[in-house]
């Protein structure tokens, strides 16, 4: 079944919770990419550089379909319909922070992302795509 549904299957360890930790940290990596694209796009906008040009450059550099797709959503500022709702991203970041706390493993970037996602919810973005975190970053930089 796994072969039919996914591209590849990985054994994360002998215990089920280890697979959960891998999934949560993977989701954290995606959230981190959204945060960094949001910060970079905000700086590009303020510097007068086309976000699509920057996205094309980064896609060529990193070759990730996740960054290409989510980056395009952010560059186009098309957050509806949500491919992955912001509230789901907030849940994932909360869960990875709980896991990190359980193992006394500080994750300061995850804490920052949680705060940005909470701010997004407070500004009415709960049902938008998780990539709309970029709006919080833009607001913090004085952009509309």
Describe the structure.
With 144 residues, the chain is an all-alpha fold. It has one domain: N-(1-d-carboxylethyl)-l-norvaline Dehydrogenase, domain 2, CATH 1.10.1040.10. It is built from 7 helices and no strands. The protein has helices spanning 2-5, 16-47, 51-62, 65-76, 86-102, 108-122, 133-140. Helix 2 crosses helix 4 and helix 6 (108-122) crosses helix 7. The protein is globular, with a radius of gyration of 16 Å.
Superfamily (CATH H level) name = N-(1-d-carboxylethyl)-l-norvaline Dehydrogenase, domain 2
Helix and strand sequence: HHHHHHH
Radius of gyration: 16 Å
- Mean pLDDT over the residues: 94
* Assembly annotation: single chain
Give a short account of the largest sheet. Answer: none
| Structural domains: how many | 1
Distance between the termini: 46 Å
Class from secondary-structure proportions: mainly alpha
Structure in a nutshell:
This protein is mainly alpha-helical and 144 residues long. Helix content is 69%, strand content 0%.
List the helices and strands and how they pair.
Blueprint: H1 2-5, H2 16-47, H3 51-62, H4 65-76, H5 86-102, H6 108-122, H7 133-140
Helix pairs in contact: 2-4, 2-5, 2-7, 3-4, 5-6, 6-7
Please name the defining characteristics of this protein:
7 helices, 0% strand, 144 residues, N-(1-d-carboxylethyl)-l-norvaline Dehydrogenase, domain 2, mainly alpha
């Amino acid at each position: 079944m796994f072969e039919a549904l996914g591209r590849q299957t990985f054994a994360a360890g002998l215990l089920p919770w280890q697979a959960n930790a891998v999934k949560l940290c993977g989701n954290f990596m995606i959230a981190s990419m959204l945060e960094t694209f949001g910060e970079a796009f905000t700086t590009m906008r303020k510097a007068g550089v086309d976000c699509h040009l920057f996205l094309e450059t980064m896609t060529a550099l990193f070759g990730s379909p996740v960054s290409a797709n989510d980056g395009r959503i952010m560059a186009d500022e098309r957050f509806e319909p949500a491919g992955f709702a912001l509230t789901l991203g907030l849940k994932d970041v909360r869960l990875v922070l709980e896991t990190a706390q359980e193992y006394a493993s500080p994750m300061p970037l995850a804490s920052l992302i949680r705060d940005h996602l909470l701010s997004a919810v407070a500004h009415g973005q709960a049902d938008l795509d998780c990539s709309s975190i970029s709006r919080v970053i833009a607001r913090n930089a004085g952009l509309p």
